[in-house]
UniProtKB/TrEMBL annotation:
Pfam families noted in UniProt: GFO_IDH_MocA (PF01408), GFO_IDH_MocA_C3 (PF22725)
Gene3D superfamilies xref list: Dihydrodipicolinate Reductase, domain 2, NAD(P)-binding Rossmann-like Domain
GFO/IDH/MocA-like oxidoreductase domain boundaries: 130-249
Any one GO molecular function term: nucleotide binding
Name used for this protein in its record: Gfo/Idh/MocA family oxidoreductase
Length: 342
């Protein structure tokens, strides 16, 4: 049973706290926030200790593992401090707001031999695992198309403080809302070779995009599309479509909507039964309307990795991949040219 400390006491921290409480191998022992009153209110709610800084929290020997839940552009400094303390670290998506800052974290972790992972809890949902397994079994045949649609809505009141700022949010509908779908898409389809994209700010008075479309070419030769927005009322669940010469699978949030293969298998009925009837809206219109089950599973897996000294299901390098795609999309939109990924 590992003691966890949370950096940041905002909305996503509450989801982490609920997830930790429900795990079998971890317990929440501390939270820190630059706003001590907020940390104290959080600590009272979740029955843990409150600190006003990462430095103070790391003096607590009961804090054995740390999870960072601050705004995206505030991940770097606490991450470096935690890594230098030798503690394993789980970081909310994205790891940071650009590749330079992300790589600084991963390089220090590698140098210090500290386990670091990024939070991409959607990979742990049964529907995601079923599609990934079908890809590995080559049930799709020649894969031709892979698409991700995140047509969400945020009211103007959502964009207050750091949200929608280039400096702290790093971007808009792609890096904040669409990154989980982009992560799943590349996890299913494999590496992206190039992107051609256009991003726009069509509804909100913000510095970054609220609407984006990207055309993708995967290294396999397959093609794809990403649509990400916070400008579509009333907001719809994220949707991923994978298609090939022998099959198609479509998922919305945690639910499989289509599971059509040329070759039928005995397990298909069980897969559809397990992956239907999702109760989560996935934050399509309300950022707080996500459940914590995926977080619970990822935290449990990460703690198991800490205890067994094995790689987690999602490594730091895995968490970097979606960020690299998003940075390429931003570059393509800025230059008007296709961008090759390294």
């Amino acid at each position: 049973m590992k003691g966890l400390g949370i950096v940041g006491a905002g909305l996503i921290s509450e989801i982490h706290a609920h997830a930790i409480k429900d795990t079998k191998n971890s317990r929440l022992v501390a939270v820190c926030d630059v706003n001590l009153q907020r940390a104290q209110e959080f600590a009272k709610l979740f029955k843990c200790k409150a600190y006003s800084s990462v430095t103070e929290m790391l003096k607590d020997s009961q804090v054995e593992v740390v999870t960072i839940c601050t705004p995206s552009g505030f991940h770097l400094d606490p991450a470096m401090e935690v890594i230098n303390s030798g503690r394993p670290l789980l970081i909310e998506k994205p790891i940071e707001i650009n590749l330079e800052r992300c790589d600084a974290i991963l390089e220090l972790a590698d140098k210090k031999n500290v386990l670091v992972s990024g939070v991409f809890q959607s990979r742990f949902h049964p529907a995601s695992l079923a599609i990934r397994h079908a890809m590995e079994q080559e049930r799709f045949g020649r894969v031709t198309l892979g698409d991700a649609y995140v047509k969400w809505y945020r009211a103007k009141e959502y964009y207050t403080g750091w949200k929608g700022t280039k400096k702290i949010d790093g971007g808009g509908a792609l890096i904040n809302q669409s990154i989980h779908a982009i992560d799943l898409l590349q996890w299913f389809m494999g590496p992206v070779k190039s992107v051609q994209a256009k991003t726009s700010t069509l509804l909100h008075d913000i510095e970054v995009e609220d609407t984006a479309v990207a055309f993708l070419e995967f290294e396999s030769g397959a093609l794809g599309v990403i649509e990400g927005t916070t400008s579509v009322y009333p907001g719809y669940m994220k949707r991923i479509e994978i298609s090939g010469s022998k099959g198609t699978a479509i998922m919305e949030e945690e639910e499989i909507k289509a599971w059509d293969f040329l070759e039928k298998r005995d397990e298909d009925k069980a897969i559809l039964a397990e992956c239907s009837g999702s109760s989560s809206s996935g934050g399509a219109a309300d950022p707080g309307a996500i459940n914590y089950i995926g977080h619970k599973k990822q935290i449990e897996n990460f703690i198991e990795s800490v205890e067994t000294n094995k790689a987690p299901f999602i490594t730091g390098e895995d968490a970097r991949k979606s960020l690299a795609i998003i940075m390429a999309i931003y570059q393509s939109s800025s230059t008007g040219k296709a961008v090759e990924l390294e």
